[in-house]
């Protein structure tokens, strides 16, 4: 049986357990010797949970363990010279794997022929549609045979164990059903564990991502010194020709500066406009205006960033160049920081406004009434009561927008270009960390040269920076928050 | 409307020596969307006295109270008809500044609604907005006296910087009273100010009301007949959106002219 069949078996038995658990508790209740501690459905769920969960855990453990055992069996048959060749070991194991797959297709007669060497395994396999790269070595054949045998045994063991565990647990849980059994709390506890598991998925994924980046980043820092990276003012990675040891300059500062500069302009547009429109929508607009304007604003959030990129490239960029930059002698390029900031800011408006609007609307009416009742004007009420009460949420909205700004790539490429510059003039071309990450990782690459590994160093730096930003904002919010009930 | 064709007649008993009128309401109707909550209420509220509004739940006491400082303006779909004057001036006149009106007519709400700010800032809110304090010391002075008047000061004097939302329900209610009197309005509207208070705090608030009466006009909504009898000079009985009877408090409580008033104050319905 495959794992799918086992899962089906577990599911079937669990459902059966639910039915009989429920039935037993109903029967017990009818006997009426003792009051039941929970409702019938809880007893049913109790049996279900106790049948399904241990079996699934056993199945998962066995499935994780099986490849290791199989791998071990294969290695036992590999000659020493193959084992010693570290770099090609995985290839050798993969070859055995293929032979093992081929063996599954041959008839016993053919098998006999192969064993005594009348025909080559390769030709037989080819007849059955399993192409091999080379001839089969005797050791490969032996390893493949034992691999198949071990696999079959392991599969049988899994089947038997899981079926046994399922059945035993079912019986065990069924026997445990007594009037005094607190099935309700027991089931609740299992649900709690499920919830915790679900939340740990997110946390563990984050940790996993960080670790994988960290590993590569450390590799990078073993080739380029951190001082050169963090303090370098020139970004010129120079894709080195294969074999040459020449490496470019990996100055992080121009990218960091470009990112900050562009994000700054984006936030300069997005925060006031977004916040003001949120205040208008939630405090002043009539419900009719609101019902039309709010969805319209939110459409902005649905536009793909590449479309904003077009807009920047074909309209905003040239306009800024022709009407501002060139007349004032500030720059000559249609690609510039201002364009990117402006367009990105427009893209971010709905992020700020929509969330802030919801948060402002959630501030209780009673607070507004209290302020208005004291003779405060609408805007005094908004400034002094509503906004402070909504502050944590608003900061959250702004942070979300800020991380979008820092992470945005498409608009930057089209609006600000890909040249890493470090300048105070916002009418020059600049670029951001994420753009360079994409740059370094596009194409056919191996993760061995500093030119590609630098992407991971950039990534983890970006990660740490955004994290720090979040922590900072959280502390600020915690300090100044005005919490309402 | 499906109400009786004959206009509803409020039974009125004048004071022996009537006070000058502070607030005058004439045929006030309030419609929430399609639901009419007040069906033409007319009443004169005397200056520097306490008027109590009583009546069963949902009869429109709060609604009428909110008309007096135009808090109904903030409710979407609420419509107010009729006329209310404060010192002879029509408060629903389009020229009138609502903000100024509300500074003159303060309100303590039925549910305590302290701002999520410190206790000090809660009370200082009004004075700051209206620029009532010349200096920091001045402001502190106002805050402390207001808290004292609301008989809350002793309980919170060591934690003026802590959030007002962290107080108990009764303390929050007194904080809201302190907040309202800190702007020294001419009229104070109190919507069940003692509903969350224990007998001791209630007695203190009643004492405060009695004290305030010398300078302020007070309208109080209450569900406690005893409280109405204790603190007010005049009492108005509302029922189903009508002002059924109004007159001197002792008269209403000893000798009501309407059967419904009688039934209500003797607890036969509610
Ligand atoms: N915001 C509103 N929207 C719609 N209807 C309302 C609103 N406020 C009050 N009402 C209705 O108006 C009527 C009068 O309400 P009001 O709050 O004035 O009663 P009340 O006399 O203060 O009652 P209570 O003693 O329970 O506070 C009620 O029927 C109520 O349902
Ligand atoms: Mg009320």
Q: Given the C-alpha coordinates, what overall shape of chain A results?
A: flat
Q: Output the CATH class name of the largest domain in chain A.
A: Mainly Alpha
Order of helices and strands of chain A: HHHHHHHHHEEHHHHHHHHH
- The name of the CATH architecture of chain B is 3-Layer(aba) Sandwich
Low-confidence segments of chain A: none
Number of domains of chain A: 2
**Most extensive interface, chain pair and sizes:** A-B, 24 and 29 residues
- Percent helix of chain B, as a range, is 25-40%
Separate helix tally of chain A: 18
Average pLDDT of chain B works out at 90
Oligomeric form:
heterodimer
The total beta strand count of chain B reads 11
CATH superfamily of chain B: P-loop containing nucleotide triphosphate hydrolases
Strand order of the largest sheet of chain B: 1-11-10-4-9-8-7
Q: What is the CA-CA span between the terminal residues of chain B?
A: 25 Å
Overall mean confidence score, pLDDT of chain A: 87
Task: Describe the SSE topology.
The complex is a heterodimer of chains A (485) and B (270).
Chain A lengths: L2 H29 L8 H38 L2 H5 L1 H18 L4 H9 L4 H7 L10 H39 L6 H41 L2 H6 L3 E2 L12 E2 L2 H32 L2 H16 L2 H21 L11 H25 L3 H9 L4 H30 L2 H7 L16 H9 L8 H31 L5
Chain B lengths: L10 E2 L8 E12 L2 E12 L3 E5 L6 H8 L9 E9 L2 E2 L7 H7 E4 L10 H12 L5 H14 L3 H4 L12 H13 L5 E5 L7 H14 L4 E5 L3 H7 L2 E6 L2 E7 H6 L4 H7 L5
Helix pairs in contact in B: 3-4, 3-6, 4-6
Summarize this structure as a short list of keywords or feature phrases.
heterodimer, A: 485 residues, 2 domains, two-stranded antiparallel sheet, flat, B: alpha/beta, Rossmann fold, seven-stranded mixed beta sheet, 10 helices, globular, binds magnesium ion
